[in-house]
Write a structure and sequence with these properties.
CATH superfamily of chain B: Cytochrome P450
CATH class of chain A: Alpha Beta
Radius of gyration of chain B: 21 Å
Number of strands of chain B: 10
Largest sheet of chain A: 3 strands, antiparallel
CATH architecture of chain A: 2-Layer Sandwich
Strand content of chain B: 5-15%
Shape of chain A: globular
Order of helices and strands of chain A: EHEEHEE
Structural class of chain A: alpha+beta
Number of domains of chain B: 1
CATH topology of chain B: Cytochrome p450
Strand order of the largest sheet of chain B: 1-2-8-5-3
Number of strands of chain A: 5
Largest sheet of chain B: 5 strands, mixed
CATH architecture of chain B: Orthogonal Bundle
Oligomer: heterodimer
Helix content of chain B: 40-55%
Number of domains of chain A: 1
CATH topology of chain A: Alpha-Beta Plaits
Shape of chain B: globular
């Protein structure tokens, strides 16, 4: 799994940091997304997919082996 | 009168927005929305001003519109779904009212504030929220059984928290609570709404002047010191944040307690396992969806679910119907504190998703289990059908919640 985040789209709602806190955090100053781990281990993939799916700004893109990039 | 949707109605016959909840169902969306969602999740809708627009009730349609920048939130472009609005288009958002703005104006303000409402910052308030909660529970215990939970607990708790966070003296509440209430009520005339904005702005302008002279450590002080906001913008934004913090969590606390107490086993489930609280809070947000309805206006023609929404069309989004969509949430009409309600639209979605949602999560996750734990025999003091419901408010809930308990 390969994760990309788009800080120009991000609104700092914090849903990713709430859902997958080992992978996403928020900048202390502007609240925008910080990617802690662009290639997280398998046991975090479900939480990461949830986080990408619920991001209100569609600022998280996932690339997984065998499928095109998706939010 | 209402055109009730029926399988026999022509697919394009416009409906009106159902607003009447069935008797005895204070937690369910107005009658007719479920049938509509099943038959026509995106339906033509006749608005009270005559406009022929749309009503979205299906989860995917509602969520798509919320996420799509081709739909505007600017008030002056909207036709309103509830009767009693102004003649002609609504006035544009007052300074600082982010709800009625689009990008890039909205983005500028949201960016200023996002860092003040992060998950981590809000969690740092946990201890203070616990203190405030305990103080109010202590006061309830001292008064003894028989209180209005809205007045004794649900309303003051989030009011104290948002006041402290912003730097607004809680002692001044007589000066802003009435204005905030008028802004949230659909029974306010357009004149009353404008007067409420003006009153709130006047009050906040005094605070801003004091903050400019001697900035404090709270949010208004931070913004007074560090941002490029004008005095007017800072006062408007402060009033917006204050109003948004007063009536929202308060209604979730009261209505959430009402639902937990009257749905068999739910309060005990939370008492038995306080760790369940974060999950239960998400489920209550989904199940109750107190911010029930919002509207957008198409800026260009948009294809959605096989239909063409024309530029200028208003689309009413029934968040409460979407959150009960069985295609997204199995057994949607069951309040199940164990379910994963993640992805619900209770805080909205898209660029206007609730700025204060992480604060609300902390408040609800602390306060609901604490209340139930402190009063193991907590129950309604009147029959459920006598609880006055906020049927004409932009945020749904209860006006009063008389409760009682056994003294030990």
């Amino acid at each position: 799994m390969d994760i990309r985040v788009d800080r120009t789209r991000c609104l700092g709602a914090g849903m990713c940091a709430l859902t997958a806190p080992q992978v996403f955090d928020q900048d202390e100053d502007d609240g925008l997304v910080l990617l802690l781990d662009a290639h997280p281990p398998q046991d975090r993939h479900t939480a990461v997919r949830t986080a990408a799916g619920i991001c209100p700004a569609s600022a998280i893109t996932l690339t997984e082996p065998g499928s095109p990039p998706h939010p | 009168m209402h055109h009730e949707p029926s399988p026999h109605a022509p697919a394009d016959e416009p409906v009106t927005l159902p607003t009447q909840r069935a008797a005895g169902c204070p937690f369910d969306p107005p009658a007719g929305l479920a049938e509509l969602r099943e038959e026509r999740p995106l339906a033509r809708m006749r608005y009270p001003d005559g406009h022929l627009g749309w009503l979205a009730t299906g989860y995917s349609a509602v969520r798509s519109v919320l996420a799509d920048p081709r739909f505007s939130s600017r008030y002056e472009l909207l036709h309103l779904p509830f009767p009693g609005g102004p003649e002609g288009p609504p006035p544009p958002a007052v300074v600082g009212d982010m709800t009625g703005m689009d990008a890039p104006e909205h983005t500028r303000l949201r960016r200023l504030l996002a860092g003040k409402f992060t998950v981590r910052r809000m969690r740092r308030l946990t201890e203070r929220v616990e203190e405030i909660t305990a103080e109010h529970l202590d006061a309830m215990e001292r008064r003894g059984p028989g209180v209005d939970l809205v007045e004794a607990f649900a309303r003051p708790l989030p009011a104290l928290v948002i006041c402290e966070l912003l730097g607004v003296p809680y002692a001044d509440r007589e000066r802003f609570q009435g204005h905030a209430h008028a802004l949230m009520s659909r029974e306010s005339t357009p004149e009353e709404v404008m007067a409420a904005y003006a009153g709130l702005q006047e009050y906040m302008a005094e605070l801003v002047a004091a903050q400019r002279a001697a900035p404090s450590d709270d949010l208004l002080g931070d913004l007074a010191r560090d941002s490029d906001l004008s005095d007017d913008e800072l006062a408007g934004l402060g009033g917006f944040l204050l109003a948004a913090g007063l009536d929202t969590t308060a209604n979730m606390l009261a209505h959430g307690t009402f639902a937990l107490l009257t749905t068999p086993g739910r309060a005990d489930a939370l008492r038995a396992d306080p760790e369940l609280a974060p999950r239960a809070v998400e489920e209550l947000m989904r199940y109750l969806t107190i911010a029930h309805t919002t509207v957008r206006s198409a800026l260009e023609d948009v294809e959605l679910e096989g239909r063409t929404i024309r530029a200028g069309d208003s689309v009413t989004l029934s968040l409460e119907a979407a959150n009960r969509d069985p295609g997204r949430f199995p057994d949607p009409d069951v309040l199940d504190p164990h379910r994963t309600a993640t992805g619900h639209l209770g805080f909205g979605h898209g660029i206007h998703q609730c700025l204060g949602q992480q604060l609300a999560r902390v408040e609800l996750t602390v306060a609901l289990p604490a209340l139930l734990g402190r009063f193991p025999t907590l129950r309604l003091a009147v029959p459920a059908e006598d609880i006055p419901l906020r049927t004409h408010m932009n945020i749904y809930g209860v006006h009063r919640l008389p409760v009682t308990w056994d003294e030990v």
